[in-house]
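TL;DR need structure tokens for one chain.
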Amino acid sequence: RHSCFNSEEVIKDLVNFCRIEPRLPSDKKTWEKSPSIAIGADWPRERIVDYLESVRSENPVADLAFTAFRDLKRSPWKPFLKAALDRNPVSIAGAAKLDIKETAVVLDGLLNESIYDGSRLAQPDEVWNYGRGDGLEKAISLLNILRNRRPQSVSGIKGDGKRVVVFSEKQEYEFESAKGVGLPTEDDFVW
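>> reply
TL;DR here they are.
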């Protein structure tokens, strides 16, 4: 039984709370050598992207740059989806007072234009915050909200890339996409 009026107990609990025993990683690391990335300060964006593309097979940092940039024509779906479905609480909170059908209507009603050009995709919270997104981005946003509310229900995305359908139980929600990056497979949703 704890009481705020028992100063001895409070101090004991505070000391226990404040005691930090660091768990640092081992200092016995194996460092892998890889070629350095040499980018000129005056290079335009297109030259940098072309250069990174040319060295990505021998340089893991250059390869990861495309994943970090969320260029879904040049990187795998799995890391993007992991972030989209596990780390986007703003869209979930924003749609909290709406049922799924209302959420789909709100998303479909947003300007059908991504905040990013080309094959780069926005995360669900970016779609929600900016109030716009390509149909594929809207579909992933709806999928994020669906999976948060009903994690046990089977839901996913299907379509031909231009027509993107989010399915859950017996309901489907359709969005139009101009991204042209294709769609993730079932394996992309397993982590």
